[in-house]
Structure formats: C-alpha cells, structure tokens
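Hi C.,

You asked whether I'd gotten around to modeling the 188-residue construct. I have! Everything is below, sequence then structure, no commentary in between.
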Amino acid sequence: MKKLMCLDIIRISDLILSLTASIVLFPIFLVLFILCWFDTGSPLFKQKRLGLSKKRFEIIKFRTMNLNTPSLPTHQISSKNITAIGACLRRTKLDELPQLWNVIVGQMSLVGPRPCLASQKDIIHKRDKLGIFCFKPGLTGLAQIRGVDMSDPDLLIDLDLEMVHSLNIRRYFMYILFTVISILGIKA
C-alpha cells in the first residue's frame, strides 16, 4: 500500500514538474526546434524503446545526428554522425527536452531506468530477470547521475536495480536535483 501511494505521488509530481518545465522552457524548446530544423531539416527524432512491462513506445528527442544514421545505441554509432548543434545538445542534455511529452502522457517518469532499444537483447534479458521492467523508464536516474550509459550494461543494470528498489519520494527529488546540478555544471 505504501509503495502504491509513493507511485501515485511520483506520477502526480511527474505531471506537475513536466508541465511546469514545458511551460517555462518553451522559449528554449522553440529556439532549439528552429536550430535543429536548420541543422538537419528534421528537428525531432523518434525511436522505438521498451518501457513499462516491455511495452514499446516512441521516445522523442531533438535530433542530434544526421538523417541517415542507423537506429543503434549511441555508443555503437560513430561520432562523425553527430552534428555540430547535436554535440552541444548532447553535452547540455537539452536533446532530452522533448521527452517531457513522454512523461506527461505517462510513458515515462522523470526518474527511472533509461529505456532501451528492442535490439539490446542482453540488457532486456537481464532487466527482465531482475524485474526492472516493472518500473517506468525515466529521463534520469542513478546511472545517469553517475555517468554510466548503455555501453557498460552490467554496471547500468546494477545501478538501475539499486535505484528502483530504493526509490521513494525523497530520492525521486534528490535524483532530479542532482541531475539539474550536473547539467548546470555546479560543483558540490
């Protein structure tokens, strides 16, 4: 019962924070949309990912790579495919901004394990075995704060597991705060 109440509070927090961020950051979103339009001619990038209960959904991001880049995990793609504007967006994490929509519609949470591609069989198998797909994927989480991505799947999954089993309201807000601090480059 306590865990369900926590999930309800997290969902309400997701909605309030995502809607607020969408409104406040709309001018930045608009500028980035225009920059990405001039950069590639297609400012938004959509990709199928696995979410809660391994259900497929389309994640939305600002396009950071050339149009003809294959749909693979980022660490498997040559950096020459990343555009100049895309490199800046990735460094500042602003390419993730459109995912606020995924949070608003309930496909993602602000905090959770990063959604993987359906082709990442090893990660899917391990996450499935450990029950990680029982949680909504998120924009940020323990792995992102610690700088771990899908190129180190075992460490990623260990951190995902630690995060989902200890997630509560206080940690939810801590992960969001630490992410903002990290993005802004504030030294603790």
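If it helps when you're writing up: Residues 2-184 form one domain.

Thanks,
B.
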